[in-house]
Amino acid sequence: MNLPLTKNFLRLFYLTLLFTCLFQNGFAQQQQQQQQQDQFLLKGILKSTDRTDVAGATVILKDAHTARVLKQMATQTDGAFSFNLNSSDYVVTVTYLGSVVYVSELVKLSGNTDLGILKINTGAVSLKEVVIKSTTNKPAIKIEGRKLTYNVQSSITAQGSNALEALKKAPGVIVSQDNSITLNGASGAMVMINGKQTYLQPEDLAQLLKSMPSSDLKAIEIIKNPSAEYDAAGTGGIINLVLKKSIAEGFNGSINVGVAYGHTLKQNTNLALNYRKGKLNLFGNYNHAFGHYAMDYDNDRTTNGKIYLNANHDIDKKRYVGATAGADYAIDSTKTLGIVVNSNFSSGGGLITPVTNIYNQSTGQLIQILRSQSSYPEQLANRYNFNLNYRYKGQNNTELSVDADYGIFDASTQNLSTNSYYSPNNQFQSANNFLVANSRNIKLYALKADYGFRVGKGKLAVGGKFSNVNAGNVFDQYDANGAVNILNINLSNTFNYQERVSAGYVKYEVSLSDKLSLDAGVRAENTHSDGQLEPRQGSTQQAQSVVRNYLNLFPTAAITYKTEKSGTYNLSFARRIDRPAYNNLNPFSYPVDELSYWKGNPFLQPQYSNTIALQYSYKKTAVSTSYTHTSDLTGTVFEVFGNNLVNMVPRNIGTQSNLNLTVSQQLKLAEWWNMSLTAMGYRLQNNVGTPTYGDYKFSRFAGTINVQQSFNLPGSITAEAAAVVNSKSIVGLNTYVKGNSQVDVGFQRSLMSDKATLKLAVTDLFWANRYNTDSQLPNLLLHTTYRGETRQVRLNFTYKFGNTKVKAKESRESGLQNESQRL
């Protein structure tokens, strides 16, 4: 795709966007008339806590953004109520005998909606304030539309850890030893935070998630087929981490202090503050986690007549610190301006002590012993992000949102690797010591705008986004065999990478009838990337340049059929992309250890996926099936070179087909016992190959079961038992991942009139969560075993202070409640 064509396309898109914005007011009268014709039913039933019908209570319907009373009615003798309403955002308030007894969360009405049974305490709440209630009891796992939600905040066993550990508990998510994330067996899942990309590589993203406490998470959303307003990145789908946000009036906050013990003691603290008054909302957060984290892993291989049995013990001494500050200001009843600044820091040293025994394959005789030590004096990673946002919500379902982001990521590591070779009788033979200094710097900025308004019977949404990422990687390797470290200019380099993505989309949502609705759109993304390898002066390396420019279209569509008696059906389609990670394009080879190297591939192409999904849900049951075909599949290939050394190289290895079936069931086994059961099964078929190893065609059925159980026990105690079981699966060129499992148990007790909670949990009770792989290639057999410090005892104490209640009187909260719910 040539650049002039790309520029002309973008000009055409932005002119279209401008034309739409300028003339949308001309449709206002038509939209108002149409809106009066298209109304939806909102209904529910009011019952007291002893299950009796509540008749004569007043149900008040308010505009969620102006708090203006729109309608009200008295409940019937059976406690039922109903309203016919236009599509918009509402809040339901219930008063009984002069007291406010219920206030709902935000209700986004876009179709006929049944709130179900609303249970109230008819005499315990005062007129002036009311604790916010959910419209339903949120299960641990919920499937709705194209989204699966794991409610982290309701999980006892997820507390006291970090976001990465919480992510591993989400159904279908597997995090490998190299921090790559697969979703239902498919690689390329995009992790977002509050709907925003992080633009970080897997190892840097893992450090960020480790620095985020799980107590900051409200939920984890898994979206298999996102619509056109989402970035097209992520062939495996989107994993969105939704952070908590208070909507209570006045000053309030919470502090969470915890300790954990696995092999060593760990400590974590999280402080959250919020002040909301009138038009202004201020919020802040501080968290830290300190401790030592251990892992044992083996990397065994057989090649060219030799067997290498490698055992490693890894200890990371980590300090994670994070802070957030922000403000929202309601300009008027329709406009909100916000600013958020957050930062995350990690530091600490590490020590890896590998021992490799080298055998003769034919005789089994020990030939040589390699004793190594990799010492990391300090590992630093700092991230800063600044966001400025604007929200407008007008009449006729008109919405405008603008986000501007600027981020900085800095990381640096040093590794002194000492390697000594010994004979089978422990006689010293030789040594090879080297020092590696690596620094990474990423600067990014992004501007995003979305605009939606009614057209005909539906809603038209258009938007655009521009992002620019500049990533620099400086790698220096020193010979450390003498008294002075000497820079090896032939093994050192600088790799600078820039990536610019310009995107635009258009999407139309419409209700074709009271049961049938359509959502269709298309997104265009133009990518320009420029990678420059700069060798050291005097080096034998050659400077290299990798420049690309390509334009892609990503259509999306979904049709939904919804009935009250037989449930909801949803059929969707989406096309998505995975662009290569920055360092994967760096053609330089750098050491992982004495015997293994990582080498980038400047010819690596993006991988693309096309997914079609069908979902059915009814009451507490959800069933979905999907088929995904991925082309230009990216995988890491192990290639032998030199004196039995191994290069790990990312390559486009072929295609993958993934047929998936997911069943989710919510069960109430007793008044005190609830269960969420999610079972996933998928069949992977890989048609892959490389010039070195030839072609492979293999397939396998795999699956995972996720069970979350909660128990209400006497004495204000709740308990949880959670289990995840993963079967054997396949990844990459020809790698089999063995099955694993994890069982967690936890207890929680409310204290101090529900202002405090004490949580005790044991994770990976049977220490069965390990990551083992086997790969068989011509002249190369590989076996790996990873076992981390997953079995831990965790104790957490949480205390809430200040005003934790929401005023029930009419207030001018404008778009702030909508802002807290928009993700």
TrEMBL record:
Residue ranges occupied by any Outer membrane protein beta-barrel domain in the UniProt entry: 396-799
Q: Which Pfam families match?
A: OMP_b-brl_3, Plug
SUPFAM superfamilies named among the record's database cross-references: Carboxypeptidase regulatory domain-like (SSF49464), Porins (SSF56935)
Q: Which keywords accompany this UniProt record?
A: Cell outer membrane, Membrane, Receptor, Signal, Transmembrane, Transmembrane beta strand, Transport
- Signal sequence interval, chain numbering: 1-30
Membrane disposition: Multi-pass membrane protein
Residues forming the TonB-dependent receptor plug domain are: 158-238
UniProt-listed InterPro entries: Beta-barrel_TonB_sf, CarboxyPept-like_regulatory, OMP_b-brl_3, Plug_dom, Plug_dom_sf, TonB-dep_rcpt-like
- Is Transmembrane found in the keyword set? yes
Please provide, in alphabetical order, the Gene Ontology terms of the cellular component aspect for this entry. cell outer membrane
Q: Which family does it belong to?
A: Belongs to the TonB-dependent receptor family.
**This protein is called what?**
TonB-dependent receptor
Q: Please give the organism.
A: Mucilaginibacter straminoryzae
Species lineage, top-down?
Bacteria, Pseudomonadati, Bacteroidota, Sphingobacteriia, Sphingobacteriales
